[in-house]
Amino acid sequence: MSFKPSMLIANFTCRFGDKKVLLDMFDEIVRPAFFDSPPRKYGKNEFFIFDLALIDVADKGGAPEPVLAGKFVRDLALTRSHVLRDTELVPSPGEMESATSARFVLVLSSHTLLYVPETPHAPPLGMFRSTMHYHLIQAWAKYMKGEVKRRRKERKGLKAGDILTELLKELPRPELNIVELPSTISISDFLNRFKKINRVEFKINDTNHSTSFKPLIEQLRAEKQATGSKGITIVETSPTNTSELGKQLEEVTKDGNIEAKVNGKGHSGETIKGTNENFRLSIPLDGIPKKMKDFVQSVFSIFSQLKAEKEIVVHRAAGQASNKLENISKSASKSDAEQSEDC
Predict the structure, then answer these.
(1) pTM of the entire structure?
(2) DSSP assignment, residue 281?
(3) DSSP-H helix ranges across the chain
(4) Which of 158, 224, 309, 341 has the greatest number of beta carbons closer than 10 A?
(5) Which residues of 127-158 are buried (b: 16+ CB within 10 A; e: fewer)?
């Protein structure tokens, strides 16, 4: 059976404590985390980021729409200890190289990730998150080291340790969440598997920028920041109206800023547990264009259509972030022009 690609859509939230978010530190940390990323080794796996490009996909006369695109590759050695001969397991140690990949587009205006596995057994989103979190921390550490040196020159007499303590309050270590967006149909299908739902949890995540939510959620976020809490979770026990629960799940998870967990019993008495991943939105694709720019235009067009039809909800950055997007857009245009000259 031939492999058929599909696109996943997720919320990509990168924060540096309570004050700084992805766009605030794009040039200093986020961009280097992608473009200056050596291979990451983890066990027998090695992860690479290739074919990176910063592209502005805005319509003529439209607001800047820079995106960061690339290819995520997992290289590993598959090992075996036995093979089957008729009905007998025969010792046969061996090893074979295997590489799988996915392409991604990070829409910077809404911190939305478009993720497309392009081979069978492509690295899942969890591996991409772990790898990018690793690179973000490395880029942050490098930035902090340089900033300590710079401030020591400006403020002679201060110890490096004192400056670092000061910096850590201003710019804590980056945290990264990637939460997949759901679809109405998949939520309904998932809930129909339950005979009884015992517990539903809603974990309220921080966002990259200010967005509009239900007043209760906004209030809880404000309380979390005021108390310095690491997280807030709302719990519902033994809900019986699955139709209303489905609407609730769709409403609060559709922008990828809230993670849901559902557990209970199936119709045969089996235990069922699920998260956003169980009702994720997956869009089949006819194919994947080879050229990165063509690929970006193709998946961004699908993303734009889903937004227009209100199949997904995303929040565009506003205020000072708009100026940041404009500067990134200029950088993307310059990069694109340089690539054209090289061709």
Answers:
(1) 0.80
(2) -
(3) 31-35, 125-154, 160-170, 184-191, 215-227, 242-253, 292-308, 320-342
(4) 224
(5) bbbbbbbbbbbbbbeebbeebbeebeeeeeee
